[in-house]
Write a structure and sequence with these properties.
Length: 285
């Protein structure tokens, strides 16, 4: 497995693979890898000849300096895990390489969807995501890129950006990987104390119970979300939002909508956890 922090070395390797006719899958990450990330690499492995993973804690997508400073850096372990997963190249640029100087002001923005939900709570977050994903796409020039459905809104932002800016890259979503009790795997789970970890699965359980209520014909979406928020707060979370939205544009769902996604973000101690479940109410699972 090749490990490089250099843009030129990355480009050279990509050029060689292209000359050999190899297809390339790309998995962008911020490192501190867990089985959720590795599932994306495995997916890439199945779909393309070569898999490139990037590890870059992108400062422009953090709205809070303390959160950025605390973000775990575990490069050595990450590279070992990627090697075991048969990743072909790990790109590990530093901040200077990606944002060459303080005058780097160009931003890619996907208005509308970027201001809802996560975007409303974390100002500028999705502009940071769209910008870094664009830069990484320009460097890696993959045939396909794989993103987790755990970050449902991020996946939508990236899909819209790729469509509207004519990137010739297939965007593939991959299901959320969970611990046995349902908690979505996340680098931020490491911030939880033992006591908090024991109640963290309430987030997924609460989303699941909303799905059940919807399947049973419940239509008071606002009341359902409100009572779910109470459940979370009573369990020790501080709910940021829990919302029942339409899958195609993330606007509030109405009784006529069948393709629905329930999205939540909630603080548990130092960790801000997010999760979602997408359902088609027309289809019995
Ligand atoms: P991050 O390192 O948090 O920026 O995540 C990198 C990629 O991994 C993103 O596409 C995430 O959606 C995806 N990801 C993170 N956690 C999970 C998970 N539990 N299951 C599947 N994909 C995930």
């Amino acid at each position: 497995m090749i490990i490089t922090s250099q843009k030129d070395a990355l480009r050279e390797q990509i050029k060689t693979w292209r000359q050999e006719g190899q297809s390339i899958a790309f998995v962008p990450t911020m490192g501190n890898l867990h089985l959720g990330h590795l599932a994306l690499v495995e997916k890439g492995r199945a779909l393309a000849d070569k898999v490139v993973t990037s590890i870059f804690v992108n400062p422009t997508q953090f709205d809070n300096a303390a959160d950025l400073d605390a973000y775990p850096h575990t490069l050595q372990d990450d590279c070992q895990a990627l090697q075991k997963q048969y990743c072909d190249l790990v790109f590990t640029p530093d901040v200077k390489a990606m944002y060459s100087d303080t005058t780097h002001t160009t931003r890619v923005s996907v208005p509308g969807i970027s201001s809802l939900l996560e975007g409303a709570s974390r100002e500028g977050h999705f502009d940071g995501v769209s910008t870094i994903v664009t830069k990484l796409f320009n460097l890696v020039t993959p045939d396909m890129a794989i993103f987790g459905e755990k970050d449902f809104q991020q996946l939508m932002v990236v899909r819209q950006m790729v469509r509207e800016l004519d990137f010739d890259i297939e965007i593939i979503g991959h299901p959320t990987q969970r611990d046995a009790d349902g908690l979505a795997l996340s680098s931020r789970n490491g911030y939880l104390t033992k006591e908090e970890r024991a109640i963290a699965s309430t987030l997924y359980a609460t989303l699941t119970s909303i799905v059940e209520e919807l399947r049973n014909g419940s239509q008071g979406f606002k009341d359902l979300a409100e009572s779910a928020s109470q459940t979370l707060n009573n369990s020790g979370f501080k709910t940021d939002y829990i919302e029942i939205r339409r899958q195609h544009d993330l606007l509030p769902a109405t009784e006529n909508d069948e393709e629905i996604v329930i999205l939540a973000a909630a603080w548990l101690g130092k960790a801000r956890l997010i999760d979602n479940i997408a359902v088609n109410l027309n289809i019995v699972n």
